[in-house]
From TrEMBL:
It comes from the Bacteria. Residues 30-94 form the Flavinylation-associated cytochrome domain. Pfam families: DUF4405. The chain crosses the membrane at residues 30-55, 75-95. This is DUF4405 domain-containing protein. It comes from Heliomicrobium undosum. Keywords: Membrane, Transmembrane, Transmembrane helix. InterPro entries: DUF4405 (IPR025517).
Amino acid sequence: MSSITNQSLPNLSVEGSAAGRSAISKVKGVISSALALLGLIVTVTGIGLFVAPHGPVAAKGWTFLGMNVPVLKDLHIWLGFGMAAFVLGHFALNLKTLIAELKQLFR
């Protein structure tokens, strides 16, 4: 019978372990996918707002992909804010890489 002192204990630290790196990689993947999806939607709503008629014609039933101008504006604005939040998260998770790349660029 061996005591607990001679047995090796697993590393319970999340930051340095492979499980911690894997979890961070999953979060990075989710953030990148969300940025791509939101970027696509914001681009499409921006195109819709660009081609939308202005003035009283816009209020007379004009739609772009089934959405009228107020819906396009709301989607564009709110999803743009969501996209900005994901960009900040992306920068926070990749700050070390960003700094290393900037040092490489300016040396």
